[in-house]
Design goal:
The chain is an alpha+beta fold. The chain contains two helices and three strands; from the N terminus they run ααβββ.
Length: 118
């Protein structure tokens, strides 16, 4: 089964070394030990932004202006809506309820989905 590679920012790639990884986990272990954090209170959280709208291809409609017009602009709409999805799981593998952050305004049918809370 073929998988597509995802681009990795050069700065991230340069810092993603075994030395830095070991250093991070050493610091994490030190914080957990110093503050006596029980393992059941350790969680991993990840977020994903989903773009609704925007990214439409440029219009192929040609505009005609008078030769003396100084302002030759066509207004375009920048309707960029973002939805953020946050997932969290404990070190025991127990997931927390999924969190979906919607943009302000009309939410459509999302509220009527069984199991979702406001």
């Amino acid at each position: 089964m073929a998988k597509w590679a995802h681009p990795l920012d050069l700065k991230w790639a340069q810092q993603f070394t075994p030395e830095n990884t070991y250093h991070y986990f050493d610091l994490l272990e030190e914080v957990i030990s110093t503050y006596e954090i029980p393992v059941e209170n350790i969680y991993n959280t990840d977020e994903k932004g989903v773009q609704l709208g925007g990214r439409q291809k440029a219009s192929t409609t040609q505009q005609i202006f008078h030769k003396d017009d100084k302002n030759r602009y066509v207004l375009k709409e920048d309707s960029l809506l973002l939805v953020t999805i946050i997932e969290t799981v404990s070190t025991h593998g127990v997931p927390c309820p999924l969190c979906i952050i919607m943009p302000p305004g009309e939410t459509g049918d999302w509220i009527s989905v069984e199991g979702l809370r406001r």
